[in-house]
Design a protein that fits this description.
alpha/beta; Transcription Regulator spoIIAA; two-stranded parallel ribbon; 19% strand; STAS_dom_sf; MlaB-like_STAS; STAS domain-containing protein; MlaB_ABC_Transporter
Length: 95
Amino acid sequence: MSSVAVPEELTLHQVRAITPHLIDLARSGDALALDLSGVCHIDTAGMQLLLAIRREAARACTPLALENPSPAVSELLSFYRLDRVLASYIVSEPA
């Protein structure tokens, strides 16, 4: 399993830098866990990246987990109603 701590900023500039690596991991077929607990800032580019990773993981039959979404991630997921779309991938530790 590949476990990746996503950077604090998941905005356009950062997304451009990390997309190729994360997409490669999603296409690998090995389980992928993205730790979203440290994300403080996320924008639409960050949401698009999460959806692209989900799409590529599904195509490659790669198990995917979006672990511990931070409040910033949860808020934007809810705003775009993607919390429903990505619900089966979201894993949160109990408080």
